[in-house]
Every structure is written in C-alpha cells, then in structure tokens.
Amino acid sequence: MRSATHEAERRLVLRKAAFREVAERGFSSVTLEDIAVRAGVSKGVTLYYFDSKDDLFRDLFSWLIDSIHLRMRDAVAAAEGPVEKVRALVALIFPSPSRNRAFFRAYVDFCGLAARKESFRQIGERFYAGCREIDRGIVEEGMRRGVFILRDAGETASTLRAIFDGLMLQWLMEKDPEACFEAYRERCERELLHYLLSPGRPVELLSPGRPGELLAPGRPEPPETARIKGRKR
Amino acid sequence: MRSATHEAERRLVLRKAAFREVAERGFSSVTLEDIAVRAGVSKGVTLYYFDSKDDLFRDLFSWLIDSIHLRMRDAVAAAEGPVEKVRALVALIFPSPSRNRAFFRAYVDFCGLAARKESFRQIGERFYAGCREIDRGIVEEGMRRGVFILRDAGETASTLRAIFDGLMLQWLMEKDPEACFEAYRERCERELLHYLLSPGRPVELLSPGRPGELLAPGRPEPPETARIKGRKR
DNA sequence: TGTATCTGACCGACCGGTCAGATAGACTCG
DNA sequence: CGAGTCTATCTGACCGGTCGGTCAGATACA
Fold first, then answer.
1. What is the mean pLDDT of chain A?
2. Nucleotides of D under 7 A from a protein CB
3. pTM to 2 decimals?
4. Measured in angstroms, what separates residue B10's CA from nucleotide C23's C1'?
5. Residue nearest to nucleotide C6 (CA to C1')
6. In terms of C-beta distances under 8 Å and separation of at least 24 residues, what long-range contacts does B16-22 make, across chains too?
7. What is the band of B1 on the pLDDT scale with cuts at 50, 70, 90?
C-alpha cells in the first residue's frame, strides 16, 4: 500500500465519477469505461477497487445517503425553531436546478434498482429510516412548542418526506425545470408548512405566499433564510 | 389486412406482455425476446408492430396513463362528495400489494426514462396534467362545500398527488411491502384528509384512525368504501 | 527484488434491429 | 369449387456492436 489513504481516495474519485455519469445516463446505460474515463483512470481500476458494477453503485448510493443525512442533520441543527428547521431542509434539498436534476435523476434510478434488488432496497430503507428520524425530531419539537398540530409524529414525518419526493417527481417532468425551480422550492416550503402548522396560530402568515416573512410565533427575528453549505447560484 | 382490429389486438397483447416484463425486470433489462415470449409470439413480431424498443415503451406508458386517467375519472365520478372522492382515489391507487408493486415498479422505471429522454418526459407531463385536473376538481368541490380549506386549488392538487407518489416510494423500500400494504393505504387516506380537511369541521373524525368512519359532514351514510373496478384480493 | 497498483487487450454473452424466406388467409379466374 | 396468386403476417437465424468481467503483463514505489 503506497499510502494508507490511497485506496479511500481512489474509491472516492470513482464514486464521484459514477455519480456524474449515472445522473446523466442512468445506471444501466453507464459503462465501467465511462466511469473510468470520467475519473481519469483506466477501466481495470474500477474493478480493482470494486467487486462489480453493482458493488460500485451500492457503494455510491450508500455514500450519497450518508452524505445527505449528515448535511440534513447539520442544517437542522443550525436552524432554530421547528419552522426554521423545515425551511432549512427545503433550502438544502433544493440547492439549485442543476444539482437538483443530477441528484434526483440518480435518485429515481436508484429507486428503480431498490424496487427490484434486495441489496439496493436495504440501502433505501436506511435512507428513509434516517430521514424519518430527522423529520420526526423537527415535528416533535414543533408539537412540543405548540406550533405544529398534535398528531402521530412518525406518520407526519413520513408524509413530510413524501411531499418532498412527490414534488420532485413532478418537477422532473416539467417542460422547463430550470424556469420553475424557484416556484417549486417556494411551493414546497409553503405546502409543508401548511401541512404542519397548527391552525389558528400562524395561518395569517401563510397567505402572503412570501416564505421570507414566515416565522414561528414568539421568535422575533430568525437568522434570515437558513444558511446551508453546498448551496449554489 | 386479415381483420380490421387484428393490429390493435396484437399491439395490446404486446403492451400487456411488456408491462408485466418491465414490472419484473425493468426497462433496460427486458429484451424484445422476453416480451415476445411472454406474448406468445416470435421476436420479429415486436418490431413488426413497433418501430423500436423505445417506441414500444412509449406506447405502453401512454396507454397505461390513459387507462389510469380513465379509471380515476370513473372512480371519482361514482363517489359522492369530496371526502368520498378522495377515498375512492386512494382505493383505486392501492388496489392490492401485487398490483401496486407491478404498477409502481413500472412507474419508477418510467420516471427514470422521463427524466432523461424528452419523448418520455412529455408523456409524464401529460400524466401529471391529467392527474392535476382530476385532483383539482375534487379540491374545488371540497372548497365550494366548505369541507376543505380554502387555498390555491392547483397547488393543493399537486401536493395531494405528491403525497400519493412519495408514500409509494417509501412503500417500495419497505422490508415487507405485503405486510404493511394496508397500513400504507390507511395512512395515505388519513394523511390526505388531514391535509385537505378544514380544521374545526370534521377533525374529530380523524382521531379514531379508522378511515371507515370518516365521512363528509352533512352526508349521513356514504355508499360504503367506494367500489372500484379492477380491484383484486 | 517484491508487491501494490494500474493498463488495456481480450473473451463470452447478450441484445436491438434486419431480413430472407415461410405461412396462410383472401381474392381472383376458370 | 379448386388452382393459382397475392400479400399481410409471422418466424428465427443472423449481424454488428456493446459491455461486464478477466487477466497477463507493465509500472513504479518501498
């Protein structure tokens, strides 16, 4: 071993190359050679560091999921109050049109694999388990503070995530996704808060439609649209 | 031409075979021969009635979409009152575990194609346009009757559909989808109605969690869980 | 010299699409 | 009715190309 971290670096480079390729072409259209070329190595290297194409993509999706979980946790931890946490999540999940398209293309591809291959399905299960945990934390905090409606926190968290995913599918089918990206981001925030917020409390804040003015009751000035790392544009 | 409808029959048989195959293996793993064998014909026939594999699948998804739209419209028309209409939609979309799995596997596959190929994307756009129209009809009726919260009907319809799709993705990732199928169906109904229903009105009906008891205010006895054609199991 | 790493030619399998011909119903014509 | 012909339909061998995976050898660092 030339260097203790050499293998880790190599695998990372290959993962990133695989991610860009899969986002463009899709799992079954991507070849090991495409990935190797993108990573700047020869084809043999891909199967030197991974057992097979499947193995490489399992690794990729696992890594992607851990990275997303980490960033969601960070974003949520940095925001104060349940409403701000939801908004931070939205900002994280809708970073920019190009990033969204890449991630969700890869994600839809992944779902196709997970729906048919057990080993991929398990990764998806882990993804949703992590999301549910994060989302439930927010929901429970909102309920404790009396901002959100009191209901089953697990189910609410699950629906919250469903709204994210479902809107994303719709966005992918839009004629001009770039053009309506902002509209989707704002709509997502609005709809999530409409779904979560306790009626009678901050309902009037929803009507202007400008999410900028939305804040949890009793908290005077939130730290401006939650600052998330990895934001572009 | 032996018979005027012969070609239509042939194409239908091939579509159905392609649907079953794509649900099991996925678009890129299915071969033209698989489809031919499943349809009980020789490989050459598939490309006698369709220009290419892509063409066959575009035709399949278009047909699937039209069929879904039709059945949704029927189900909605047969149900009385907005709450019953929502429940009819849920019953239609969650017919049985096996049908769900087949349809959603195919659907996820389709999304992967639509996210990358313009010709497939257009089909997806048509699908969501039709859904939005149907869903908006229900939402508007609910608002007119004062049962649903007054908001932008188009956006509400879009979120309604997002909850369907998003929950379905989660269901596909479950360890034992068969086992939790009923739970998902009930949760979907509960969450949709929670999202839509005007607070203060039938909120107390939501708490028992038993969707069987849920009905629109002022309508004494709904015609039992909406009867939908094509229901199995 | 030893060994981890890397290379790319190569293999076997597969697949979409083509095509030359087989098949058989329909339609003459006698 | 029956032979002959036409043509829509069907068949499956075949072609060209691709791809995942293998491997013998090259490379270069320790």
1. 88
2. 8-13, 18-24, 29-30
3. 0.86
4. 18
5. A45
6. B18/B56, B18/B57, B18/B60, B19/B60, B19/B64, B19/B102, B19/B106, B20/B102, B22/B57, B22/B60, B22/B105, B22/B106, B22/B109
7. low
